[in-house]
């Protein structure tokens, strides 16, 4: 753990809400997002990068204009002011630390920059977001071993976890074009599926998905690029990882069951995947690094997936939660209710391992590329990170506090993902919500 | 078939080589590529779009400057002069036809533009290419039923073709970042594999791929975009398809066999895929449309994958060929030799069906997105579109004319894909080569 003064839990900000109990965005966090003010009339504002602080956004376009920065920091702020986070992501960890340090100094209690920067704050309630960066390629991994086991049982009762699972960080390519930011509604997809009891040779059915599901994931964003043909060793992975957000990988289970053999999921996944607006940097997460261990009796990772640093602190202690608000709850003014909670430290592979594996064959990753963690379920039955797990494949409906039941999602259901880090002696680091509502099929 | 005067086989060009016997690039073709002159010294030239004609490239940056175009054509040439083909792809078929018609008029024998455009020609031998457009997302389909059956037999002898194959155009997401242009060498990838005879529970091996293969594919480029949530009906697919190139989907068979369950191929495919530099437009291919039919007894496509237009002319009669030149052949000055030949009309699904299927769930496609056809093998044993098929999974080596044998590719092997259309009463339309050499593992 590379803890530095930026993690001091005693640090405070002149932005009062950064000290609010339970805030996701204290001065120790400082995640990046791409935003503009919501306009009721007139032309839309340009997108630019901001940093979350309490319930405010520090507008980095305005902050760059306000001046008072070193030449090095001003050069880093220039692309951010133009809405281009990828340019900073491309520069590796030293640039990130310089920027973090400068922004923290500017926002801390007693900063001489307060008078110049106070007018650069905008309430988060007054802004809308785009994706935080351009994602050229999106890879989805499968690191939730409890999810892989539970889902494997439904598809292959005798053989839930395939022989490669404990050796290969299983992953596949996702669709980048249909990544959308939190708050974007998603239409229920149409597609082919086989209803239960349809004979094997008979025609499939076609229509709106009947088994629509969410998946609770974290998404890691790539920082510095590697060239095609040049693997990144696990010890260098930190240079190439920028930060983390939440990812809801909406899934059409009936389409998936029918289409996925032999090349994997396709239309069951690419009708939309939701990302949270804020990217929490790897630097902000440093205090929550925990040892990476393997259960007794499990194989140790191959050498290219192993390092002392990864063993000592490759895993991350991040609390994860899914909440649902049905149309009926929304009409009644009832807030979303929690469906489950799990922790990212239970993932079977660490981010450094995913990055080393992804590039070991020479595959090139670019700044802003997204690595999904796969669904993060906990070890207990109520900790499934998808409805497929929580309802045992749709066989055991769950009952919500208002008496409604669900096997899979209904039109009008809103799903929210949340994540936060908490421990003694460290400031709470939150991710902000990742949410989306289901619209009827076209 | 929408044949128009642009397909008249009697048309000739003032560029003499466009009339050479066997040329890929007569005046009826006019494919687009992104190029610059090879510089031995001094700063590199900017990339710009050109059109192939005979053994020359018409430099569209120079041609735009030369003037003599209508305002409409000049507006279309402006992004092309800046190296941006995607902007024209985005506009749909009407813009493509306007441009084709203007370029053909300019290049045809007797054109008044000849004096102004003659200085805009550059010999293809003097240029280098980048990818013809920006490919944001790459989907690889699996439409070669003879390939799917042959490969299925190797993995699942009792059950070669899965029950969904004749209903679902099977596809999966590929990696866009590692798409490279013809001529780019590829390093043999390292990765995990299980050697034959390794017990199921034992550790996998790690090292350079031992079963490196090519795949003979066509790649279709998307034209006009569709918005997320808005499917494209099969009758509208033509508006959204820009053209075709060749695609070699290099494949590491040993990595693939170990990693592909349950989410599909990943590191076995994303270490590099090669595209030919030229995109042959759908307009140039019109004379080679042929009826789409299903074998007796096979199910008819579901309604969203069926149309009268698709039945009448949804398939394309394109000859495909793979050639190999080993390092030993190269040293001896021997040219590449053909390994197999097949025809794209044997594909089980048409391009219009792929586009309708890909978007039926609301997935959004963007201009320049790539749809791989999957490996195009013919029905006969010697028509496998990969070594996996030609050597029965590496069990029966093939012998080359110089006496060398191959099961899979060796370092120094160059693989070339070729494609062309020929029939009575139409000009020959060729694709130019798609080639790549294998370098040793790092």
From TrEMBL, chains A, B:
Query: Under which name does UniProt file this protein?
Result: fumarylacetoacetase
Q: What sequence ranges are listed for the domain Fumarylacetoacetase N-terminal? A: 28-132
Q: In which pathway does it act?
A: Amino-acid degradation; L-phenylalanine degradation; acetoacetate and fumarate from L-phenylalanine: step 6/6
Keyword Magnesium assigned to the entry: answer is yes
Domain spans labelled Fumarylacetoacetase-like C-terminal: 165-429
Q: Tell me which positions the record assigns to the signal sequence.
A: none
* Enzyme Commission no: 3.7.1.2
What Gene3D superfamilies does the entry give?
Fumarylacetoacetase, N-terminal domain, Fumarylacetoacetase-like, C-terminal domain
Question: What are the start and end residues of every segment in region (Disordered)?
Answer: 371-401
Q: Which cofactor does it need?
A: Ca(2+); Mg(2+)
Asked if Plastid is a keyword of the record, the answer is no
Looking up InterPro entries in the UniProt record yields: Fumarylacetoacetase, Fumarylacetoacetase-like_C, Fumarylacetoacetase_C_sf, Fumarylacetoacetase_N, Fumarylacetoacetase_N_sf
Question: Which keywords fit this entry according to its UniProt record?
Answer: Calcium, Hydrolase, Magnesium, Metal-binding, Phenylalanine catabolism, Tyrosine catabolism
| Organism encoding this protein | Sphaerotilus microaerophilus
